[in-house]
Amino acid sequence: MLSAKTIQIVKEITPAVAANAETITTCFYKRMFAGNPEVKAYFNAAHQHSGGQQRALAGAICAYFTHIDNPAVLGPAVELIAQKHCSLGIQEDQYPIVGKHLLDAIKEVMGDAATPEIIDAVAEAYGFLAEVCVGREAAIYQELREQPGGWNGYRKFEVARKETESSEVVSLYLKAADGNPIADYLPGQYLTVRVDHPTTPTSPRNYSISDKPNGEYYRISVKRESALTENAPGGVISNYLHDVVQVGDQLEIGPPCGEFTLDPEQQDGRSVVFLAGGIGVTPLLAMAKALVAKKSSTPVYFLQAARNSDVLALRGEVQQLVEQNPLVKSLVMFDQAMADELSCGHCDAEGFLTLETLQNWAPLTEAEFYFCGPKPFMENVMSILNLAGVPESRIHFEFFGPKQELVTAG
């Protein structure tokens, strides 16, 4: 447990740290990548370039300092970090590297205000959090290793099928190259793909499993991302998977991880509303397909929002669920619909999701809500759910990329 003195000091410095949090985290990454360049392989260069990684870490530090006297509040955040670390193969001996450079960054940014007493308190607070994370990660590694078909690290998988889902999305069906069983997973979890790119060093990438568990293969559905700038190699891996990887090729795959999940065995019949923006359909489709396969009595509402039919992915599989189960209802919205798409039945509505649309389509007062997609889409959904008075306990979402706060209007 943390000492009372450390808790007091951390709470006292929280406003100053919050005011300088992004400056500290930017300094931290620069120092860490310079002092320990080997860890750079774990970080997405595009997220670094956009500042998303720095902002996410800044938010995490502020949250921890704010709740330093009640760390149990941070349980969900710890689980997210632990799952991500296990997907990447982070080990206990890497925590001191982070701690050293974080303390050095605080000293550099805060200057004389970072007294030895303050640095000692922050070091103790970091050590406590690291111990919690390491303990949880050890348990996850053990679970992944010991379950039937499970493994730690990376395992060779062969691309058994490659299917075009839209102008932007392809699906890869992955089977274990060794022919041995594969681990089960909860719908919503992701795989880690490590590629030894021939020209551009890249970090491993996480891709949601887009199909229900089946014991034979994993499926990931990958959106082609364009490069942000010449100096930010966004889209390197997605373009490689689209253009280079073919049926019969092998990829290095990490075990299923992630805390954004839906367990069909735990559903009690309460309605579930899935709100998918673009490629955010992937984890939600796995959840919906698992519910229907279980022959659940749970009413399912599945909304897909996209620019138009050219980029709408996996619509046919959602429609199959509607045809298989009368408890499944779907809605398609295009915000940049092409000519006659609404009149031809390619979509059900045009424009962006509104509270009125959601009220007229789904049971707001009792449903569980799961949503995923681009940040503007997710901010809009969160704003709508807040306006509707949906309690936080019934709201579940996932970011593709560093976890950020959803800033909502109103």
UniProtKB/TrEMBL annotation:
Residues 152-263 form the FAD-binding FR-type domain. SUPFAM superfamilies: Ferredoxin reductase-like, C-terminal NADP-linked domain, Globin-like, Riboflavin synthase domain-like. InterPro entries: Cbr1-like_FAD-bd_dom (IPR008333), FAD-bd_FR_type (IPR017927), FNR_nucleotide-bd (IPR039261), Globin (IPR000971), Globin-like_sf (IPR009050), Globin/Proto (IPR012292), OxRdtase_FAD/NAD-bd (IPR001433), Riboflavin_synthase-like_b-brl (IPR017938). Its cofactor is heme b; FAD. Coiled coil: none annotated. Residues 1-138 form the Globin domain. Its EC number is 1.14.12.17. This is Flavohemoprotein. It comes from Polystyrenella longa.
